[in-house]
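Researcher: I'd like a structural prediction for the single chain below. Treat it as a standalone chain; there are no partners to consider.
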Amino acid sequence: MGYGIGGYLSLEKQAAFGTPVSSSPAYIPFVSESLTENKNLLTITNLRNVYDSPNDLQGTNNVTGDIVFEPHPIYLGHFLRGCITAGTVSSTLQTSAYLHEFLPAQAEFAEDCTLPPYTITIYKNVGSAYTIADGLIHTLGIEMVAGEIVKCTATVHGRAYTKSAKASPSYIAADPFTWNQVSLQVGGSANGVFESANLTITNPIDGIMALNASTNEARLLRNDFRTITIDGDQSFENQAQEAKFRDQSLQAFKFTVTGDTVVGNTGEYNQLTLDMPDVRYTTYAYPIGGPGRITAAYEAKAQYDTTSSYALRTTLQNTAQSY
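Model: Treating it as a single chain, here is the predicted structure.
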């Protein structure tokens, strides 16, 4: 009998598209996964004087689904690299900790692969494990809600799915980020009216088939613009943010999530920053829903800032030397 508590999930970056690896995976604590193998069957449409539906033939074979996890500052870096960059992350030693910078790539990882590919392995507590080759983390959501543990959802498109031998996972002993470690600056000033913020980075990806004697996709390529959006709720205490929506003003949003101190240095912290210099509200609704307090539901979009040369700058400070 398979139980979720007996399963594991791991990631390992690939050097090239089409070349899965299994040398030094990172085992990721996770809440749930929905990674599913798809056969996308083809139906024969020839007429043959039979009323029953013709046979099906195997079509495109791929893997899609989500990984939901509560982020620790080291594990999160693998997902940031996969979703934001083209494979290059700047890592600089501070004193005891390393500061990693993730900037949205303005290039492709390779001509057949938009984002850095990962080998993803899942063990479901029964028999063999399952390995996904060329897994692209094309969408990453970071959910920060007052009173809760920070939660992430990574959406994956993988090219191939095979069985593999079960391994013995090992984990870093560390707790995930929580809401009371999150602070926010809006327009350069601290802002305490936000009660939730869900930041989502989306890279629309298409699997491209080829006449190459394979049912697996030959390329995984971008089909639209990358978007960075934020949505959530605010306490409607004044009309400051409502005015920004009505005027369609741009303003800077900067989230800082500060965890515990780095081992061996009381002056450095495990820390995540999400810096968006140009953010514009797309919706801002503040209806009266009854006799209680009024909250405002907002949606916003981060735009590319020509001065900073990015729409989002993410940094992660931890003890990992590189990604």
